[in-house]
Design brief:
Layout lengths: L2 H8 L16 H19 L4 H6 L2 H35 L3 H16 L2 H11 L4 H25 L3 H9 L4 H32 L11 H9 L3 H29 L5
Helix pairs in contact: 1-8, 2-11, 4-7, 4-9, 5-7, 6-7, 7-9, 8-9, 9-11, 10-11
């Protein structure tokens, strides 16, 4: 990273243009739409029994998709507003002990199987939406925290010195230099956390928190193949679309050349 980059980041000269969204970025949503269309066509060609009809209808599907998205988006938002500031504070501290303790605690969610985290919280606390939300936050916390820490620390010390030489305070260096340069790494962590949350939200059904996991589990228990397939395809589609949206945001927010 050069001193010129530092001056661009702090606003002395116009910042570099943002990355353009290329046509290949639209491959993912087109593929997802194609798969969903094929799934709807397949459902229209097979005969559903009464149990399958009670599940495979628009009211039920929209409710489960809404519950799944609610768990995913709210948990990811909580992770973002807590893990990013904590990562910045860890980057500021020089104590290896403090870093080790915080990262060790945050790693508990990743080291423990997701279903174990959810069931354990349900046993010691209660079942339902709130417990599933807390479990998702615990599970998705580490990628954002670690990437924020890495993103801040990877900024070239010469860039910081150049900004301080211009008379900037520590907070100004953080906001106008370090964070803009760390954006790609931080967004990569958020992107990972979002995809994690989509997958883990599926097992929230075991503690009565709703979501598309209800469809998958019911389909397996009742041996209804169409129900299981639709639930799995919807979860995979949501994960792909959320990852696609996060990728678009990453392209828009990352300056060209960073």
């Amino acid at each position: 990273m050069t001193v010129t980059t530092a001056t661009q980041a702090v606003g002395v000269v116009p910042p570099p243009p943002r990355r353009r969204i290329t046509g290949r970025r639209f491959v993912t949503p087109l593929v997802v739409l194609g798969v969903l269309a094929l799934m709807l066509l397949w459902l229209s060609l097979i005969e559903l029994d009464s149990i399958e009809q009670r599940t495979l209808n628009w009211d039920y599907l929209l409710k489960r998709v809404g519950e799944h998205l609610s768990l995913t988006v709210v948990a990811s938002a909580i992770v973002a507003i807590t893990a990013i500031p904590l990562g910045i504070l860890l980057a500021r501290t020089r104590s290896a002990v403090v870093r080790g303790i915080v990262l060790g605690i945050a790693n508990i969610g990743q080291a423990t199987p997701a279903v174990g985290v959810i069931i354990l919280l349900a046993i010691v606390w209660t079942t339902g939406y709130t417990t599933a939300l807390v479990a998702l936050v615990v599970y998705a916390f580490l990628p954002v925290l670690r990437n924020t820490l890495i993103g801040i620390e990877q900024v070239d010390p010469n860039v910081r010195e150049a900004a301080r030489g211009m008379g900037m305070t520590g907070n100004q260096v953080l906001v106008r230099v370090e964070l803009p340069l760390a954006v790609p790494v931080i967004l990569a962590g958020l992107r990972t956390a979002l995809v994690f949350a989509v997958g883990v939200a599926t097992i929230a059904t075991f503690i009565n928190a709703g979501g598309l996991g209800d469809m998958i589990v019911n389909g397996l228990k009742l041996q209804r193949f169409p129900v299981t397939v639709v639930g799995a395809v919807l979860v995979a589609s949501i994960a792909l679309l959320i990852d696609w949206v996060a990728g678009i945001a990453e392209d828009l927010l990352t300056p060209k050349g960073v």
